[in-house]
Amino acid sequence: MPVGTTLTPAQREAFDRDGFLVLPHFSSDADMLALRDAAGAIEAAYDPAVDGACAFTTSDAAAARKFSDAYFLGSAAVTRCFTEELSADELAAAAAARKAPDGDASAPLPKPPLNKIGHTLHDAHPVFAPFSHSAAVRSLLTDGVGMATPVGVQSMYIFKGARVGGAVPPHRDATFLHTSPVDTVTGLWWAVDDAAVGNGCLWALPGSHRGGAPRKMVLNADRDGTTFEGTDAAAEGAGGPDAPGWVPLEVARGGLVLLHGAVLHKSGRNTSGVPRHAYSMHVIDEQPGVVWDKSNWLQRPPELPFRAV
């Protein structure tokens, strides 16, 4: 990983203009494979029957929602696995196998493939933490992006598995992670695998960050779930999934995509035969007078404060 990494004037101009920037070969293949192996170990150890799962089917929708909210909110302080949701066909096939004459009626439903691991890897994991807090990352954010004190608030290992990786609709990171009185969130997205249109690479809408993030996901009144405030016409209309102007951010393994917190971005389903693993981290700038909103879904306990990168 390069030390003393910064941005050229042309790169900084492009980031300010477009709201995103692709930095090829920012990290080494060895770094990416180390992250892949670490995530694979977490995946192998994950048991949804013991650890719980955020995506599952139940006849009690209210109870399911309550469990999902608690599981999700708890991932602010504890690393948790989130699954892809099994399709109706997959559930039917599993049920049929259990009922077959030679089937095991007590056999569990198949373990769903993982969608992601979140949201404390950058602070809590022995492989992800030193990678996330490296001198190269810190230099990029301070010398390159111009942050005063970059602080990591969340991280995710995203699987986007071959043939099962789900689509992510157009969104802005600052909708989900926000500071006041100004939004300062920046996203860093590493291609652990080569990312191309065929396996669900990121897409971004140039210049869509200029209007900020008018819609916010916030904790509800009871602080046991989330709701949305405001509307985002650009995300729902002009910036919708079929709108013109979107550009694919294809990048080889080790490349880094910088994302302004308000830029619209998305990714399609991975219908290919190759995975598209990625690692992302979101940071805020701890400037004087800027605070982490208490309405954010992600609230760390006092004993686990955010750390500067």
UniProtKB/TrEMBL annotation:
- UniProtKB keywords: Iron, Metal-binding
Q: Which cofactor does it need?
A: Fe cation
**Classification via InterPro entries:** Phytyl_CoA_dOase-like
Source superkingdom: Eukaryota
Q: Name one Pfam family in it.
A: PhyH
Signal peptide positions are: none
Q: Name one GO molecular function term.
A: metal ion binding
Among PANTHER family, the record links this protein to: PHYTANOYL-COA DIOXYGENASE DOMAIN CONTAINING 1 (PTHR20883), PHYTANOYL-COA DIOXYGENASE DOMAIN-CONTAINING PROTEIN 1 (PTHR20883:SF15)
The protein here is known as Fe2OG dioxygenase domain-containing protein
Lineage start:
Eukaryota, Rhodophyta, Bangiophyceae, Bangiales, Bangiaceae
